[in-house]
Amino acid sequence: MATNESASILGSVSLAVEYLDSLLPDNPLQAPFKNAWLYMLSNYTKFQIATWGSLIVHEGLYFLFCLPAFLFQFIPYMQKYKIQKEKPETWEGQWKCFRVILFNHFCIQLPLICGTWYFTEYFDIPYDWDSMPRWHMLLAKCLGCAVIEDTWHYFLHRLLHHKKIYKYIHKVHHEFQAPFGMEAEYAHPLETLILGTGFFIGILVFCDHVVLLWAWVTVRLIETIDVHSGYDIPLNPLKFIPFYTGARHHDFHHMNFVGNYASTFTWWDRLFGTDSQYVAYTEKMKKLQQLNKKTK
User: Fold this and answer.
1) Domain total in the chain
2) CA–CA gap between residue 20 and residue 12 (Å, rounded)
3) How far apart are CA 170 and CA 193, in angstroms?
């Protein structure tokens, strides 16, 4: 009975989304995207698409999403949005970060990406245009991947902060007490493997087309680079996502080293009370701001 009711609810939601989708104007990017996808299928093998295509998508998006926060350091107006104003970025730190990032991407992540083709072949994951899921299904599956990754990240990240483990692995990521966008994947190789596993679990559960790999990579990079950006931008559209952590939440983790272990959502930290120091700090800062306003 419960299964039938769940199926009925999901069916009703799907129909409602389909109806809303029919009311939306045609996407002007749909035709160019389709043409590009068909061109890719006609000119490259599945192995090339799954491996080199995935690498190009990851590298291109990673540094593209890092660019805004990188440019903010040269714009005086944006400094009022920097969270830890007393700790500006340095060229030395950014250059070191860049070198480590390239090592992790090409020596750790690339071999994993090469396994993508074997995964799609083993599970018979389609590449063709006609099998591509609609945008709302793609978005729903990315959300499912985010929930799974966030759960994995919370518990494994919290474990990496254990005093017997921390100095051997996770301490590398905390080398920068004031994070910046490019530092999102600055980590010990073992941490890249341990926390990166959470990214692939959702793919194993939800993937029914190779496009989900690239959609989920896009969503995950947007999120992790945003929370590491070091800037709290008021009009950031990600703030409208319920329970989203945001830059201040994760920035406090780098500043405090304890608490705020989640990657995307706040519910695990709230449930286990590991955001208590962050909540106390936030309340303290609010009172100081109110006091400063009264004294002016």
Assistant:
1) 1
2) 12
3) 12
230: left (phi over 0), alpha (psi -120 to 50) or beta: left
Q: Which domain holds residue 151?
A: 48-295
Structural domain contains residue 4: no
Judge whether 217 and 54 are in contact, CB under 8 Å.
Answer: yes
pLDDT of residue 10: 46
Query: Is 41 a domain residue?
Result: no
**Please, are residues 148 and 201 in contact by the beta-carbon 8 Å criterion?**
yes
Name residues whose C-beta falls within 8 Å of residue 277's C-beta, 6 or more positions apart in sequence.
252, 256, 258, 259
Residue 79 clears pLDDT 80, i.e. is over it: yes
Residue 238 lies in a domain: yes
Q: What is the pTM of this model?
A: 0.89
- 192-202 residue pLDDT tens: 999 999 999 99
Backbone conformation region of residue 243, classed left if phi is above 0, alpha if psi is from -120 to 50, else beta: left
For residue 276, give both structure tokens. Answer: 């208590």
